[in-house]
Known about the structure:
The structure holds two protein chains of two kinds.
Chain A (H helix, E strand, L loop, with lengths): L6 H48 L5 H29 L28 H22 L6 H23 L5 H6 L7 H19 L6 E2 L2 E2 L7 H20 L3 E2 L6 E2 L8 H23 L2 H16 L7 H24 L8 H19 L14 H28 L7 H6 L1 H6 L27
Antiparallel strand pairs in A: 1-2, 3-4
Chain B lengths: L20 H31 L2
Amino acid sequence: MENSPTLESLQAALDAQQAVFEMHQAMNVEVFYWWCTAIMLMIHAGFLAYEMGASRSKNALAAGIKNILAIALIIPAFYLFGWWIYNAFPNGFVPIEAAAALPWSASMGPDVQDMGTGIFWAAFALFGATTGSILSGAVIERIRVSAFLILTIFLGGVVWIMAGAWGWHPDGWLLTKFGYHDVGASGVVHAVAGFFTLGVLMNLGARKGKFINGIAQTISPHSLPMTLIGLMMIIFGFFGFLGGCIIFNGGETGWTTIYGTPTNLSAFAFNTLMGFAGGIIGCYIATRDPFWTMSGGLVGIISVAAGLDLYSPSLAFIIAVCTGIVAIQFAKFLEKRGIDDAVGAVSVHGFTGVAAVILVGVFAAGTPNAEGLPAISFVGQLIGAAVMGLMGFVPGYGLSLLLKKANALRVPEACEDIGIDEVEILVKPYPEGSVPAVYTGDVPNKLANTEA
Amino acid sequence: MGSSITTWENVSAYFTFADSPFILGLFSIGVAAIITGLIISIIRHENAAFDKI
């Protein structure tokens, strides 16, 4: 029979099918991270609404413009040096060869054969932009836009990604030496950005009127509803963020963590939602305050993100509730020491990020890593948490101190009185109406008067 | 003028000037200069605005 298939023709047909399958699998990887990146942009839409709402009306647009410019500057900064830092510094401060990640490399642009670099670069650039937004909210109403942009480029383009190279890279020294586990970036994004923010706040100082005779006063958001909606938008964006934290492998491997251990989106789904719910409840129990209750959703997710692949969902819920309660105490602790964190970023991101990393060492110690790497341990997580905190705090404090010495960190007092929008932005947010700028109530400070 | 390919056969990187690291380096310097220039312009704008108070 002349038309009978030969072994060679069957093999050729099989090879052709395999090629089609592999191409479609590579395209699926691209599609997955493309939409994760798009969804992550909702984090920035959320931060935009959240920070503008949290400002008094006289500073609302200044808060917004610095948020918009932050993302516009972190993206090119991450192209110029962020991606190279990630690839070059897994061993510490001494770079390894990573010329392909430099901006003049043929690898850093459209390439028919490369369906990974661009899409991973984009996701990481958006992670970097998130660190900038974490800083952005805490410093509203008194930082110079220029100073903020210098700080945010440094944080989003250099600092966090150095920490990422150490603790969020298959060859990062925190993983290879200590078995560090932080799948959802509680440490490398949130702790680093939160403690960077603390360093900046120490040099920036409090908003005028925040402390009277050492007692913290309430400076109410001009639009609490906008702030609450913004926070919920950030939560939505978190699903892109956390999706971007999982590795979509080709071949038969399937999903893995960034450390090469097996996991899947189902694991992430269980614990993201349970953490979200728990954090809201914890912060509500501790404050009864709408702003903190909604912030609790962030606290909850961040508190379980480091071990998102490992926790039982009920444990994740309990961790989130407890961390939500304790995070409020940390916010009070900072405020009593004269730190004016306008949106609680140090507590929500810094404290919770560090706690999340340590809690993996408490509850998941002994979990094996990929072959040849140390298992997860309490000591390893403790070291990792300390590294993340310091990696944020030291550069944030140092650079903001330099800006302060150059008289380039804070707006003049008269500008603060009038409002940055009136002086610098030259546009009014609400030209046809007035919004009360300051709420004076019987309670001098909400956070200080909460029960828990 | 910037095309780095003449055919789609066996193409890898195909973007403009992909075959010229020197030109890409110049573009990178341009990107850095724009970022730096923007920040300098914002500082000047702020100083001018604060002086008018």
